Amino acid sequence: MPEKIRIHIINGPNLNMLGKREPDIYGTFTLTDLEKTIRETFPGTEIAFFQSNHEGEIIDYLQSLWGQEHTGLIINAGAFSHYSYAIHDALKMLAFPKTEVHLSNIYQREAFRAHSVLSSVCDGVIAGLGINGYLLGVSDLIMKLKNG
Ligand code: DQA
CA-to-CA distance for 131 and 29, rounded, in angstroms? Predict the structure, then answer.
């Protein structure tokens, strides 16, 4: 029997405030709504969600995934995406497929958001598609992991 696929979805600082935070940019859904939509879209896939406002906690979580197989990762590191070399280094250590997701189109906003220090250590980047970005990211990871 093929090994079960596991997807980890990490959301960084302020993403716990979805629904309240700048709804014109991020939408009116909450983080719980986001997680529920993802789970309901992929009922047969094991999905683990992690959110933290703390850089070190995100790094600890990434380190806990070291050496895992049949695993894929989605990360929306929020503002850490733009300057955390520590999260960059932690992602670089992980050999399985990793996708960076942003709800908003970071290229259309303030100049500081247009660069992510995480993109070079992720296999793909999705920005500006809201919740659909997560769904497309998970779907791509499942295809990648199923094809070996
Ligand atoms: C974000 C974009 C970041 O610039 C911002 O700091 C966030 C959310 C997004 O999902 O669009 O917190 O990552």
Answer: 9
Average pLDDT, the chain: 96
In a domain, 1, yes or no: no
- Distance from the alpha carbon of residue 3 to the mean position of ligand 1, in angstroms: 33
Residues annotated as catalytic (active site), given as ranges: 26, 102
How many domains does the chain fold into? 1
Which residues, judged by CB distance below 6 Å to any ligand atom, belong to the binding site of ligand 1?
Answer: 14, 76, 78-79, 81, 102-104, 106, 113
pTM for this structure? 0.97
Handedness of CA 83, 87, 92, 96 (dihedral sign): negative
d(Cα 123, Cα 57) in Å, to the nearest integer? 22
Q: Give the domain range for residue 35.
A: 6-147
Q: Is the pLDDT of residue 108 over 90?
A: yes
Q: What is the CATH number of the domain that holds 141?
A: 3.40.50.9100
Closest atom, ligand 1, to C-alpha of 104 = 11
